[in-house]
Write a structure and sequence with these properties.
about 280 residues; alpha+beta; three-stranded antiparallel β-sheet; about 20% helix
């Protein structure tokens, strides 16, 4: 069974690479690579002179269950006598006791925590000696008649959601928003109380008094509710039955203008005089 085709947009990076003899020795979280890209058997044991099988297997399931685990950031094929690079380790072996993995060349990988990784290995493929090139894959090297290819890509990580702000009671008491809300509520209550008082006062006024119309609250003055009473000094004057008002003369506007017309000629003449010159 070949490893399923994976792409960067819908798969997880590899979390492990290993050798295995058959499905019975392969861990359940790993997948065997049993065929090459052209459909040939991918059994490395043929080149080892062994009857038992030896296949590569990869894992990408652990990252789904444990997003805080490690991923395979790089993979190398080193000659046996080459020193192991810093941070790298040989791939795991899940093989039968009779199976010996070739030591002429060794596969090694570098694991790093998923949260620290920007790029990782997403897939492995095998080809024969036909010099076939796998698009979008990088050649790792040749081992036992097979060419190993890997596909490396960037890890798409979900953006962290912003945490809701938690404010202490002290900070809430200092919040401008709360003060503005309380101030607005207090002002609104004061306005409502004033409206009620004005409405009650207007209801006590006489309807015939147009100054205190309900359409104009500015007609309300400080004299509201003060009863009108004439000073006792003038009460006898108002009770005189025969008051002579026949001498009152009503003048027209033209008569008033003619009587009080003033041309300002004196002022104009004075203004027109030249100022005296200095001797």
């Amino acid at each position: 069974m070949a490893a399923p085709e994976m792409s960067e947009s819908n798969c997880y990076p590899l979390t492990g690479v290993g050798w295995t003899s058959n499905p019975n020795t392969c861990p359940k979280e790993y997948q065997l690579i049993t065929t090459t890209t052209d459909g040939s058997s991918a059994n490395f044991a043929k080149g080892f002179g062994q009857k038992s099988g030896c296949y590569l297997c990869v894992s990408s399931l652990l990252i789904k269950e444990n997003p805080h685990g490690d991923v395979v950031a790089d993979i190398l094929l080193l000659p046996d006598k080459s020193p192991l690079h810093s941070g790298y380790s040989f791939v795991d072996e899940f093989v039968d006791s009779k199976v010996t993995v070739s030591k002429k060349k060794r596969l090694c990988i570098r694991r790093i925590p998923f949260k620290e990784a920007d790029t990782a290995i997403f897939d492995l493929k095998l080809t024969g000696k036909s010099k076939q090139i796998v698009p979008s894959y990088t050649c790792i090297g040749e081992l036992s008649g097979f060419v190993i290819w890997c596909r490396k890509g960037r890890i798409a990580k979900p953006k962290p959601l912003p945490k809701p702000r938690s404010m202490s009671k002290v900070m809430q008491s200092l919040s401008l928003e709360d003060e503005n809300t309380k101030s607005f509520q207090s002002k609104s209550q004061e306005d409502d109380a004033l409206t009620i008082r004005l409405s009650k006062r207007r209801s006590n006024l006489e309807a015939k008094d147009t100054v205190y119309s309900s359409e104009n609250i500015y007609g309300i003055s400080a004299m509201d509710g003060v009863p009108f009473a004439l000073h006792p000094r003038f009460e006898n004057t108002m009770n005189v039955p025969n008051v002579n008002i026949t001498n009152v003369q009503i003048k027209s506007r033209a008569e008033i203008e003619n009587e009080y017309n003033y041309s300002f000629m004196t002022e104009k003449t004075a203004a027109a005089r030249l100022p005296p010159t200095a001797s």
